[in-house]
Design brief:
alpha/beta, Rossmann fold, two-stranded antiparallel ribbon, about 35% helix, elongated, binds S-adenosylmethionine
């Protein structure tokens, strides 16, 4: 397998009443299959669709509908079938219907059982069909066309130029939280005595290197509201997107965004970082050409290309970790499916301790953790 993600495929997983089935977004070679980015909740705002022009579609089964208008289930199901007849996967189409049309997976199940039920759409069939046809024609990710990507328990804005968050990266957040003492996490969540900093100083300083859309930073800020965060990227587009996402959740005061090259940008905090997470680019350059067009042709190469062996960014991050982490601080990295031994070696060579490998939800070792020694002050 060439993919570097490990997500749920198009199965009947449901969260918050919405299907987790989603657009196929694994970083994989063209012959390989399936991943999902799961829907969450809330209202939709479409990004303006730039050129090339949206194609109207066959229109053969196109019901006349306006946003908010109700459709009889039978009509909607026939229209859905006509869209699928044009190409694409049912999981991707159902993701679009759910996230952009407000038709949840559970609604579709209900309509199949009783097609006489009516259902209202949040967008017109014409709008949804236009997005679908454009996706089929150009292989643009549905997330970019809709402008949203559900991730963990929230929805992020996404746009071309910034990596679409992958489902397996959610695990990086879980691992980061699990790497902290439970009493400290409880304090950072709810307050209270355990692990509190002196004089109201935050009891934990964390950083997200290569923040992209800000997904990991947002998740950490939500999980640890009493900690302070830093998020770095060398892409202005990524920083703008992360800033917008943090602001949407009123978390911009908790996370400082910095433009920089990995640790460079965080110099004022070197030696003080208790927790650092990074999902750096790690695909070997030679594999980029073989990725699915939906990834290769539409997602930023800066977020994908890890150099000749895929380890350029990971090597740079490991090399600077002992200087930047606080004594006892922890570093967590996501990496490609076959890089675990090499990443552990890089972490050890950099002087970090207790390097360990961690699996994704499919059991593939896709994460590494290591610590700066406590006595290394
Ligand atoms: C694989 S993406 C991860 C984005 C986000 N953290 C996520 O998990 O979806 C890697 C990110 O690293 C950024 N990046 C690449 N090279 C960098 C560098 N030298 N310094 C800082 N950020 C860099 C890219 O712009 C991109 O946003």
């Amino acid at each position: 397998m060439l993919w570097m993600s490990g997500s749920t495929g198009p199965t009947e997983l449901v969260q918050n009443g919405r299907s987790r089935v989603g657009p196929d977004r694994r970083f994989r070679a063209t012959a390989e299959a399936a991943m999902g980015c799961r829907p969450g909740a809330s209202k939709l705002e479409f990004m303006a669709l730039p050129s090339p022009p949206v194609v109207a579609g066959s229109g053969a089964c196109l019901p006349e509908s306006c946003p908010g208008e109700t459709l009889v289930g039978e009509v909607l199901l026939a229209w859905r079938r006509s869209l699928l007849a044009q190409g694409g996967s049912s999981s991707d189409l159902d993701w679009l219907l759910d996230l952009a049309g407000g038709v949840r997976w559970s609604d579709l199940q209900r309509l199949r059982l009783d097609p006489s039920i009516s259902i209202s759409l949040e967008r017109s069939c014409q709008q949804l069909e236009a997005i679908w046809c454009r996706h089929l024609q150009t292989a643009e990710p549905l997330q970019y066309l809709v402008g949203l990507c559900p991730w963990r328990d929230f929805e992020l804005r996404v746009a071309p130029g910034v990596l679409i968050p992958r489902q397996e990266t959610e695990r990086l957040v879980d691992l980061a939280l699990a790497s902290l003492p439970a009493a400290l996490v409880a304090h950072l969540q709810h307050g209270g005595p355990a692990g509190a900093g002196k004089h109201d100083e935050p009891a934990l300083l964390w950083a997200d290197l290569g923040t992209g859309s800000g997904c990991v930073a947002l998740a950490l800020a939500r999980a640890l509201p009493r900690a302070q965060g830093l998020a770095v990227d060398c892409s202005d587009l990524a920083l703008a997107q992360a800033s917008a996402n943090l602001a949407r959740f009123a978390l911009d005061g908790m996370v400082r965004l910095r433009h920089g090259d990995w640790w460079h940008g965080l110099e004022p905090w070197w030696g003080q970082l208790d927790l650092v997470v990074a999902n750096p680019p790690y695909i070997p350059t030679a594999l980029i050409a073989g990725l699915e067009p939906i990834v290769r042709d539409h997602e930023p190469r800066l977020a994908l290309d890890g150099g000749a062996d895929g380890l350029a960014a990971i090597g740079a991050i490991a090399a600077g970790a002992c200087r930047a982490l606080a004594p006892g601080g922890v570093l967590l990295l996501e990496h490609h499916h076959d890089q675990s031994p090499a990443v552990l070696e890089l972490l050890g060579q950099a002087g970090l301790m207790a390097a360990s490998a961690h699996p994704d939800l499919e059991g593939t070792l896709r994460f590494a953790r290591a610590y700066r020694s406590r006595s290394d002050g």
